[in-house]
């Protein structure tokens, strides 16, 4: 091959380089057509092999990334579980302590979900929003603006576009 | 281009095809060297562009797969959190109910982790295994075989190679 710098720079090469072989440098003789064909066949073969490798590598990487994320999120919950067990252990000695313990654990779990990107949504008094609320009942409430969330039956988690689930709510009906 | 079947079959092409242009088919005239160079330049340019696209696409896919896995695992814990809140709500009416409720929730959380691929490890009486146990104390226990797990201080989760954390244990010391 009378154009060795092409092979050496193969990984950094871009499509813009494709015509470079035709620009005869002062110090290098112009390649013969046959040499140019061999050089291009070589580059094309390498690019196709690299495509094949890249596809295989990404399947492996995807599996690894998912497993790592699964472990990360599962591990984030272990302190919640540990504290549940501590609360149970303490309850034998002091039955009254468990209620306060469980409240703290609930708060810890809610905080954990927010840290993972899924903040709790349990606001009342806000206008009904179909993107974050699921209506389970419409109630008569003379003192409340129609279409306002009166009660959160089950809190939602997550933000618009990244929702784990919507908040299940009751809303005030329209006034007659 | 006097070799149009190459362009059409571009996506299915493999490196083994690279010499096919030289096998003159009865119905097609052999390409001139210049046509062969143009064809190869075109193929190489496409392969490089495809490589570039593939890299970009995989970065996006990786991010999406991680976000989906994060949401899936976080959502798996919502029933645990919901039940904690139910237990708290019932506790106001029946303070004695919370202990049994919290025990069930603990079991639910342990079951959830197992389903995600991280079974609980809290066995005693098994030989110490550095791949799953972390020794927090060595105790004298005349009735137990040396190097046996006597007590699990904090359970481990996960299996060999997919561990969230090892079990923290006390083991029986060697006999004098």
TrEMBL record, chains A, B:
Gene Ontology cellular component list: cytoplasm
GO biological process, one term: protein folding
Single GO MF annotation: protein homodimerization activity
Subunit structure of this chain's protein: Homodimer.
SUPFAM superfamilies, sorted: Coiled-coil domain of nucleotide exchange factor GrpE (SSF58014), Head domain of nucleotide exchange factor GrpE (SSF51064)
Protein's recorded name: Protein GrpE
Family recorded in the similarity comment: Belongs to the GrpE family.
Biological function: Participates actively in the response to hyperosmotic and heat shock by preventing the aggregation of stress-denatured proteins, in association with DnaK and GrpE. It is the nucleotide exchange factor for DnaK and may function as a thermosensor. Unfolded proteins bind initially to DnaJ; upon interaction with the DnaJ-bound protein, DnaK hydrolyzes its bound ATP, resulting in the formation of a stable complex. GrpE releases ADP from DnaK; ATP binding to DnaK triggers the release of the substrate protein, thus completing the reaction cycle.
Stored InterPro entries: GrpE, GrpE_CC, GrpE_head
Biased amino acid composition, Low complexity: 10-23
Pfam families reported for this sequence: GrpE
PANTHER family on file: GRPE PROTEIN, GRPE PROTEIN HOMOLOG, MITOCHONDRIAL
Major localisation: cytoplasm
Cellular localization per UniProt: Cytoplasm
Residue numbers spanned by region Disordered: 1-37
């Amino acid at each position: 091959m009378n154009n060795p710098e092409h092979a050496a720079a193969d990984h950094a090469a871009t499509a813009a380089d494709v015509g470079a072989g035709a620009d005869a440098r002062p110090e290098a003789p112009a390649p013969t057509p046959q040499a140019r064909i061999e050089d291009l066949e070589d580059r094309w073969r390498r690019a196709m092999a690299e495509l094949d490798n890249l596809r295989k590598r990404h399947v492996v990487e995807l599996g690894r990334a998912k497993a790592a994320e699964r472990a990360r999120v599962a591990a984030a919950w272990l302190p919640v579980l540990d504290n549940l067990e501590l609360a149970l252990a303490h309850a034998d000695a002091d039955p009254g302590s468990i209620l306060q313990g469980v409240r703290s654990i609930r708060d810890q779990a809610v905080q954990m979900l927010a840290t993972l990107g899924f903040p709790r949504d349990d606001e009342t008094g806000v206008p009904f929003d179909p993107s974050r609320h699921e209506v389970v009942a419409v109630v008569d409430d003379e003192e409340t603006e129609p279409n306002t969330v009166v009660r959160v039956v089950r809190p939602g988690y997550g933000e618009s576009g990244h929702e784990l689930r919507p908040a299940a709510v009751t809303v005030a009906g329209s006034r007659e």
